[in-house]
Specification:
The chain is α/β, with parallel strands linked by helices. It is built from twelve helices and 19 strands. α9 packs across α11. The protein starts with about 25 loop residues before the first strand and ends with a helix.
Length: about 475
């Protein structure tokens, strides 16, 4: 496990790499760019003494989880899609059993489940869920977490890849003065999405198990595989889980509770051309890669691209082109909060691909649409007390509630549709799916404390009325 530095702030180097390649695991005071003096910043307070007490063990867990490569793989042939998720699952089972959740288990499909019995035995069963996998969108192996103590508000220069965290481009970072910030070394993602959520749940239930005097309902814990490729809920056994409702810990900014997500489809266009030796290609070659490039170029980038839309606007996002002059494939994700608009976006992609393919009679086009998930708001509107409990817990921890919609999805999107109402709560992580990913230890501790507050809310007599 990574260790903190002596008070002098010298860098303690990891023993896992040769000295020339070692990355500092903890950074204390830092030099501001262009200034030859060390800055000193007063540490920020935690939202409560409870959060402060949870922070050390939470950080230790998170750093350990982050170093296990759990990156999921698209087009999986089994569950989970990668063996690293099983490695993390086995570790989590061990930690949960050690904490007192004696039924903790890892099933053959890579799902970890466990139960913490309620303090009185009559309260409803409430679920806590996070996912173990990390995104395939950025490098995920060899993660080396770096802790930047008492962040001073300056640009954070990471040791590798020329990666910089610039508060001028990351408004969330501006508010984190005095926080302890965790990043990767700069050439991999960090894995806060969603190992921050995993660490928060384990830390919270371990605390509750160690303090039986604290009121709580029966808590069911689940850690899912392959959420990042849309499969986290596919093999989730809701009847066996047995919860009235659940909460995913998979959000971002402190205080968030989210009851709405995008609706989502994936569209795949396969273009078949005519492959000929380029030296003899005149009048014969039909380059499928060139056709694919035309399809992408003709999609409306100014009105339906993720880089030009915000708020409740949907998009078409081509994320992969592969193939050769004979056969090329375009994969795109299509998103909108409105199911009708989602269908329109899918149809637009299909029309564009057909129009391009029609210009070359010798080309052949195949189209496929894969349904991924739907906006969970419809299902959560019927159970407003589930959101009300989360908001009360956030306020009890001293934070302002931020009701937001997710420009993305969670396991809760599909679980809510499948019959388990599952809104989403913040974790304190940011810049997900990139080498710039970072998390605030202070905010992660607030999220873990919020889980404990949520348990107290669900232990009250009012919860019996909700459950009825």
């Amino acid at each position: 496990m990574l260790q903190a530095l002596p008070a002098c702030g010298r860098l303690k180097r990891s023993g896992s790499l040769p000295a020339a390649e070692a990355v500092p695991t903890v950074v204390g005071r830092r030099r501001r760019p262009g200034i030859g003096i060390l800055t000193s910043v007063t540490p920020a307070p935690y939202t409560s003494s409870l959060a402060a007490s949870l922070a050390p063990s939470l950080l230790e867990r998170f750093q350990g989880y982050a170093q296990i490569d759990t990156q999921s793989r698209r087009d999986r042939s089994g569950s989970p899609s990668t063996p690293g998720q099983l490695e993390l699952g086995r570790r989590l089972v061990g930690e949960l059993v050690e904490a007192g959740l004696v039924d903790a288990a890892l099933d053959p499909n890579g799902y970890v489940t466990a139960t913490l019995p309620g303090s009185a035995g009559s309260e409803p069963v409430i679920g806590l869920i996070a996912h173990m996998d990390t995104s395939p969108d950025a490098p995920g192996a060899g993660v080396q977490p770096v802790v930047h103590r008492d962040y001073d508000g300056a640009v954070i220069e990471l040791p590798r890849g020329g990666t910089r965290l610039d508060p001028e481009r990351m408004p969330e970072l501006v508010a984190k003065g005095g926080h302890d910030i965790v990043t990767s070394s700069g050439d991999t993602l960090l894995g806060a999405d969603d190992k921050a959520g995993v660490a928060e749940i384990v830390t919270a239930v371990a605390h509750l198990a160690a303090h039986p005097e604290l009121p709580r309902p029966t808590l069911r814990v689940a850690f899912t595989p392959d959420e990042e490729i849309g499969e986290g809920a596919t093999l989730f056994d809701i009847p066996r889980f047995g919860a009235l409702c659940a909460y995913t810990m998979d959000g971002s900014e402190v205080g968030e509770v989210q009851d709405e997500t995008f609706s989502a489809d994936e569209v795949i266009a396969t273009l078949h051309g005519v492959e000929v030796h380029p030296g003899q290609a005149t009048g014969k070659l039909v380059n499928a890669l060139r056709l694919a490039a035309h399809v992408v170029a003709e999609l409306p980038a100014q009105t339906l691209a993720p880089e030009t839309t915000s708020g409740r606007e949907g998009f078409i996002h081509p994320y992969e082109i592969s193939g050769n002059p004979g056969v090329a494939e375009i994969r795109a994700i299509v998103r909108d909060f409105d199911d009708g608009l989602l269908r329109e976006h899918v149809e637009l992609f299909q029309r564009t691909a057909r129009a391009v393919a029609a210009r070359e009679p010798r080309a052949r086009l195949e189209l496929a649409v894969h349904r991924q998930y739907r906006n969970m708001r419809t299902h959560l509107e019927a159970v407003p007390y589930v959101i009300a409990a989360a908001e009360e817990a956030i306020r009890a921890e001293g934070m302002t509630v931020r009701r937001t919609a997710i420009r993305g999805g969670t396991d809760g999107s599909r679980l809510s549709e499948m019959g388990l109402p599952t809104p989403n709560i913040f974790t304190g992580g940011h810049e997900y799916h990139s080498v710039r990913e970072w998390a605030s230890v202070h905010d992660m501790a607030s999220a873990a404390a919020t889980i404990i507050r949520l348990a107290e809310v669900w232990s009250r007599p009012l919860a019996d009325e909700w459950a009825a």
